[in-house]
Design brief:
Chain lengths: ~220, ~240
């Protein structure tokens, strides 16, 4: 049983991993065809992986409704929202527009999903500001640099910030705030970002090798 | 789509936007309903995307129209993932997971080496190449030197194989400042990104407040304010009880 439960899955991981890795460095017609097929296969498997999350959500909310736990009524809205997107999608065959006309799915995306997702993320703007107040209490020079960089970027991105800068420092005839913001993003921020990217890259490569060779296997769960 | 559906859409969008914003005042049933609706709609959106962009064109059509039976292999591998819900056979899901992990790992190594390692090192060295230096662009050289020094100092900060003292400590300290500049810039960008979303929502609320949408924003906002006033008096504790608490 260990063979079926453990060794064969690990062998699949090893073979698929090594073949995918080597096909990048050995570009033949066969390897290109292999990568193309595997890409398609991975899309299909990942599609089913989504079902895991969907079923888990449905089980959780169905349980709340059947057991009438506190706030069970809100769980109904999960199913309403799901059906509000899926039913029109099936009717309109997954199309948002037919010619210049909006389909049911297009309507749902524009007035329901887009409104909800846009607002949900924009609400974070208020929380970011309150977080910033706590995070930017300048206790050291390093915190001061962090604050200055954030402030410059925020001023550089809006016309109001540019007007303030122009009023305060326009007489110097130097760079405007948009140019300073751009320089900050293109030069010193790039140095910091590259250092982090390199660390992440090395960590990612090592983890990927550990997965291919079966050293890292926590994702398989317990025996 | 008829004009009426656009007006209904305006009311729905304005209502949901105001319901979600109402959380800024305090938690309330309208926010919770909109929040759950978002969860369901998000899942519905992803479901229809997977259905019409993966399952139908990559599984159903090859099977029924082209007789391509090889698609059954990833389909079965995918279906094994769902066995996670049945403890007795949940080990079957390992077949799907190991396939995804093996393919992802094999793919990520060359891509990471190419984009995150070699291209970044190349980008740092590029301003000092002979062809660039002979152009005599001083500003480009100075910027290149700042990036190179900052990059090396940041690497020193993350290098733990030697003790951070002396010159290494100084380099690592300079690295912290470059990291702070990056974090600050990233934070500033995120804040402005969120605010641009906020402007978008306010712009929509303004649009739906017009007479062509029958003043949807005004009406819904008024109803919400009324709800909070009524709720305030309904849930207010009697003065004696408040004192005792």
């Amino acid at each position: 049983m260990t063979l079926i439960k453990k060794h064969i899955p690990l062998a699949i991981c090893f073979i698929v991993g090594i073949l995918t890795l080597s096909s990048y460095y050995v570009p033949t017609q066969a390897s290109e065809k292999y990568v193309e097929s595997m890409n398609k296969w991975e899309n299909i498997v990942a599609g089913f992986a989504f079902l895991l999350g969907l079923f888990s959500l449905f089980f959780s909310h169905t349980r709340k409704i059947t057991r009438r736990v506190d706030g069970w009524g809100y769980s109904l809205f999960v199913f309403v929202g799901f059906l509000a997107m899926v039913v029109p999608a099936i009717v309109s065959n997954g199309k948002q527009m037919v010619g210049a006309d909006l389909t049911g799915l297009g309507w749902g995306y524009r007035f329901l999903f887009n409104a909800l997702s846009g607002t949900m993320f924009s609400v974070l703007a208020f929380y970011i500001v309150s977080t910033a107040y706590r995070a930017f209490r300048i206790k050291s020079l390093q915190a001061g640099v962090l604050f200055a960089a954030a402030l410059v970027l925020m001023l550089a991105k809006v016309p109001l910030g540019q007007m303030i800068w122009e009023t305060l420092f326009g007489w110097t005839g130097g760079w405007d705030i948009a140019q300073i913001g751009q320089w900050l993003m293109d030069v010193p921020a790039v140095a910091g970002k590259r250092g982090i990217m390199m660390g992440l890259a090395i960590g990612g490569i090592v983890t990927a090798l550990k997965i291919i060779f079966g050293i890292e296997r926590q994702y398989m769960g317990k025996d | 789509m008829s004009e009426t559906m656009f007006i209904v859409g305006g009311w729905v969008a304005a209502g949901l936007t105001i319901f979600l914003f109402s959380f800024l005042y305090k938690d309330n049933p309208f926010f919770k309903a909109a929040e759950h609706l978002y969860l369901g709609a998000g899942m519905g959106w992803v479901f229809q995307t997977v259905l019409f962009q993966t399952w139908i064109p990559k599984v159903w059509e090859p099977l029924t129209k082209q007789g391509d039976w090889t698609v059954l292999i990833p389909t079965v591998l995918g279906l094994t993932l769902v066995t996670q819900f049945f403890p007795k056979i949940s080990w079957l899901s390992r077949y799907g997971f190991t396939f995804i992990m093996g393919y992802g790992s094999g793919l990520v190594i060359p891509l990471t080496i190419s984009t995150d390692l070699l291209k970044q090192i190349g980008g740092t060295m590029a301003p000092f190449m002979v062809s660039e230096v002979t152009r005599g662009n001083i500003l480009s050289l100075v910027n290149g030197a700042i990036i190179a020094v900052g990059f090396i100092c940041v690497l020193f900060y993350f290098f733990f194989s030697v003790e951070h003292k002396g010159a290494i400590k100084k380099a690592s300290n300079i690295g912290i400042y470059f990291l702070m500049l990056y974090f600050g810039a990233a934070f500033g960008n995120t804040v402005m990104g969120r605010f641009s979303l906020l402007y978008g929502r306010f712009d929509d609320l303004y649009k739906y407040s017009g007479s062509n949408y029958f003043y949807a924003t005004h009406v819904i906002l008024g109803v919400m304010v009324l709800y909070f006033i009524v709720d305030h008096f309904r849930t207010r504790k009697p003065a004696a009880e408040e004192e005792a608490a």
